[in-house]
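ARCHIVE CARD
Drawer: 12
Card no.: 0347
Subject: one protein chain, sequence and derived structure
Cross-reference: see card 0346
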Amino acid sequence: MSPTTTLTWTPVCRLDRLEPERGVAALVDGVQVALFASGGELFAVDNLDPVGGAYVLSRGIVGSRGGVPTVASPLHKQVYDLRTGRCLDLPDVSVRRHDVRSRDGLVEVRLRQEE
């Protein structure tokens, strides 16, 4: 299955509300999304920790591993690549990532769905 993208960009918050290297949770079209501003880039992934089963990734520890922007789950500390959603500790685990952009100072998210 390849991911597809919905056509709708949903405004979430003002860019200046995101603190660098800190996550924030947002509800986008009924989906809990974790947003991050790290290294001058924006990232959005599902807030659901696929290992722990709780909506906590927005509270994870933001960092990097080998130059890759990451978030570590606050539950069991698995580390996820914020660019791809792939777990760097468990090769068969990933979290869905979403498109995110800043337009006119407003952060917008476009959900990605599986076909």
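Annotation on reverse: The mean pLDDT is 93. Residues 19-110 form a domain with the Rieske Iron-sulfur Protein fold (CATH 2.102.10.10).
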